[in-house]
Amino acid sequence: RRAQESVRARALHRAFVVIDEPQIIDVGLWNLFLQALRAACAEWQAQVLFNTATLPPIAGGLQEPCTPLNDEVHGQPRYQIRFSPTPITADQAAEWALRHSHSHQALAVVVNTVADAVEVYRHLRAADLEHQCTLLTAIMLPGHKRARIQEIRQRLEHNQPTVVVCTQMLEAGVDLSFERILRALPVFPAVAQVAGRANRHGEGQTGIVEVCPYHRSNGKDSRLLVYRDETSRRQTDALLSEHHSFSESSVASLLGTYLSRCWQENRYEACLQRLERAARGLWSELAGLEPFAHDYSRVEVFVPCGTEMVPRYAERMLADYAPEGPTQLLDLLSRSHRHGEHSFEDRKRILALVHCFTVPVPRQVAQQIADPVNEWLWLLRKPEDYCPEMGLAAAGAEHEATEVII
Questions:
Q1: pLDDT tens-digit series, residues 359-383
Q2: Could you tell me if 14 and 46 are in contact, meaning their C-beta atoms sit under 8 angstroms apart?
Q3: What pLDDT digit, counting tens, does each position of 252-285 carry?
Q4: Contact 165/139 with Cβ under 8 angstroms?
Q5: Phi and psi of 232, rounded to 5°?
Q6: Using an 8 Å Cβ cutoff, are 177 and 199 in contact?
Q7: Is there a contact between 216 and 90 (Cβ–Cβ < 8 Å)?
């Protein structure tokens, strides 16, 4: 997309590349991704490690087998997954948490959109819940999210009653463990991912993950707004209908079945013709292809909050670059790009500091709560719209466009 990305390619020379959870790569581009990866490894003498419980089919892309580095382990299953085809609503999800709070210390309700998370959270806050209830979404400042996750971890470690309502951000890169999880129906890989947060370290009794469709009060299924591939949804529904209850020991096999069925239904090999045409000189065939779905309708909203919402290192940087406060950063950012007043290193640090104060939201939401600063950055009109409890989730949930945020 930019020349700078081509410059970075040189760093792959003799590199060791770790690709974590490759099954989340766009299935339509998986074979193309593998072929490009194979060529890159040959060109730059790089090596690749796939870190995954189940590797998607690789024959069409790598044309050679991978070498497994782990021994097969058969331990006590940490969790059991149960599927119910009966849809639930926000108030029923809250009732589920209330019902299980009498017998479980650590509960999580995972839904597909921020708007859904806010609705469930408000139901729980209005109820007589003895557990501490926490909302966790992607539209919070980075430091705010980090602090919330640390608070949740400490409560769980001290066996304090905890209920977390969140979006699928819980499913990757978050080391938290719950006794019982309610998951709004996603696609099968997401079911496997969220199950890894049930009795995560095998520290307690078998964790239970309950999966069921989630409908809004108007009957709308918000799953369609996030998981838009019809094949993935259909194969997930078919697999869960065949296996209403299964343990951790069956997940890898079922995930393999799911992926194979998706590949059989849609032979994702047409993209390889793009590579052939590009090799013949038509390089534009590869333009714009990305291994991960990206929503270019999002913009960054700058939140001029106090330093209590940012990491400690950002406080030190802020004192060096913008002692008058975060709003001074916007002027610095503008001057450094327009007039080149700062060194390359300083510009990088200023930009990194700006991102400590930004939250990604859809452009439609930004238009309601912020004003544009440049093509990618917007300034929150009213700092009080950023809630210490919910971040921008409360403000964003008022606008229908929030549905696309995960």
A1: 999 888 899 999 999 888 999 999 9
A2: yes
A3: 889 888 888 887 887 777 777 888 898 899 988 8
A4: no
A5: -60, -45
A6: yes
A7: yes
**Which token pair is 26?**
């766009």
245-247 and 377-380 strand pairing: unpaired
Six token digits for residue 6: 């081509």
C-alpha span between 60 and 63 (Å, rounded) = 6
Between CA 332 and CA 321 the distance in angstroms is 8
Burial class (CB in 10 A: 0-12, 13-18, 19+), 161: middle
Number of Cβ within a 10 Å radius of residue 187: 21
Residue 245's beta-bridge partner residues? 82
Six-digit token pair at 303?
């939140």
Q: Is the dihedral of CA 388, 389, 392, 395 positive or negative?
A: negative
Instruction: State how far Cα 373 lies from the chain centre.
Output: 27
pTM assigned to the model: 0.86
Local structure of 133: helix, strand or coil? strand
